[in-house]
Specification:
Blueprint (H helix, E strand, L loop, with lengths): L17 H8 L19 E10 L6 E15 L11 E8 L9 E9 L16 E9 L3 E9 L4 E9 L6 E7 L13 E11 L13 E2 L19 E11 L11 H9 L2 E5 L6 E8 L4 E7 L12 E2 L6 E4 L5 E13 L3 E8 L8 E6 L5 E5 L6
Antiparallel strand pairs: 1-2, 2-3, 2-4, 3-11, 4-9, 5-8, 5-11, 6-7, 6-9, 7-10, 12-20, 13-14, 13-19, 14-18, 15-20, 16-17, 16-19, 17-18
């Protein structure tokens, strides 16, 4: 195999940049998970959004209250020449031209405190952080990007400007470190990053908190445009990277399997693979009508899930019993027990099982799926 020579001529100041050195020196430097918007386990498009929830792109939640109606989608509209394949798109479908005081719309991601200890927040050695991202909207003007310390109820907010309509623009914002209030070293929510899109007077009537301070709602989104004032409005974002320091490095692309495992710590979804119907590993029937089946997770979830999300009706699910015969379920699968490493599910049929025999939970069609959430969720 031929090996290219490294020549003195190729080692020039122009070829050695801070960003390239940072890439080699700091793997996993991006605090944001799925910042390239490449994974969307829940759905690729959700319509009729009026309240706070998780919709499409993994790890990015929507905070909403009386701010119009929205469609969120995983879009293929991306900046040219930047290696991104997807973006998150917000599209206004019902306008809210006159805002109530508490109206708001945000796209956010939240972070565990145990992953932020190297920022040394609350000490004299606290680190600055820099967020960089690509953004596009038909509505030009001032937008707000805010960091919120959930442990100590502190925040800092900076504005950025979309200067050219319908044009991808890269933005970089640096936030000073905070010498007050350390992040708790556990798996709970310590930090949130909010991209504001709509803000009523409750969030805009003060002075923008451009330095770390105890939270005052009136200082969170001062100057924010109203993206909900027209059904012609949309907003796209991709390449979101939050990292320690005052310099934005090149976006850190991760292998898809690594990115998926990081997302599955917070949301884990099982679907029927093409050519197969299995949704679970093996279990056993405990009566003639019901049985327990296990779903082992591919990674340790943040917390033990406490509920099961499923889709469709009972007829979308079935049990394969010890005799290799499939029986249609009489009820949708039900939650039994959650652990950080897996979950136990109850599958139910009208009759035909033998207590103590092996079973497997299956999908009767592509409507069926099972999912569990361990998201950081508080607004």
């Amino acid at each position: 195999m031929a090996i290219d020579k490294i020549t003195t001529a190729s080692i020039t100041d122009a070829n050695i940049t801070t960003a390239k050195l940072a890439y080699d020196a700091a793997p996993f430097r991006n605090i944001v998970i799925n910042g390239d918007m490449s994974l969307a386990q829940r759905a690729t498009s959700v319509t009729g959004i009026t309240s706070s929830t998780f919709n499409t792109v993994d790890r990015f939640g929507t905070g909403a209250s009386s701010a119009g109606t929205w469609t969120q989608s995983k879009s293929t509209d991306v900046p040219t020449g930047q290696e991104f394949a997807t973006s998150l798109k917000m599209d206004c479908t019902t306008a809210q031209g006159s805002l109530g005081s508490g109206d708001r719309l945000q796209i956010y991601q939240k972070f565990e405190g145990q992953n932020l200890q190297y920022l040394k927040k609350g000490t004299s050695s606290t680190e600055s952080t820099t967020v960089s991202f690509w953004v596009k909207s038909n509505k030009t003007g001032t937008y707000i990007a805010e960091l919120y310390d959930s442990d100590n109820t502190r925040h800092i907010a900076k504005s950025y400007t979309i200067s050219n309509a319908n044009t991808w623009e890269k933005k970089t914002i640096t936030y000073a470190g905070d010498t007050s209030g350390a992040f708790t070293n556990d798996n709970g929510e310590s930090l949130a990053m909010y991209f504001w899109l709509v803000a009523g007077s409750d969030f805009t009537s003060g002075t923008l908190a451009t330095s770390w301070a105890s939270n005052t709602n009136a200082n969170r989104a001062v100057g924010q445009v109203n993206l909900s004032d027209s059904t012609s409005n949309d907003w796209y974002i991709t390449g979101v990277q939050l990292e320690a320091g005052t310099t934005a490095s090149e976006f850190e692309f991760l292998p898809v399997d690594v990115n998926l495992l990081r997302c599955q710590r917070y949301y884990y979804k099982v679907i029927a693979e093409a050519g197969g119907r299995a949704l679970t590993s093996l279990g056993y029937s405990y009566s003639s009508t019901a049985g327990y089946v296990m779903v082992p997770f591919s990674t340790i979830m943040r917390i033990s899930p406490t509920a099961l999300e499923q889709n469709g009706t009972a007829s979308d699910y079935s049990i394969l019993n010890n005799a290799a015969a499939a029986a249609t379920c009489s009820a949708v699968p039900a939650f039994s027990q959650g652990m950080t490493w897996g979950a136990r599910i109850i599958f139910t049929v009208a009759s035909g099982l033998t207590a103590g025999q092996g079973i497997q939970g299956r999908a009767s069609n592509t409507n069926a799926y099972l999912a569990w959430s361990a998201e950081l969720w508080s607004l």
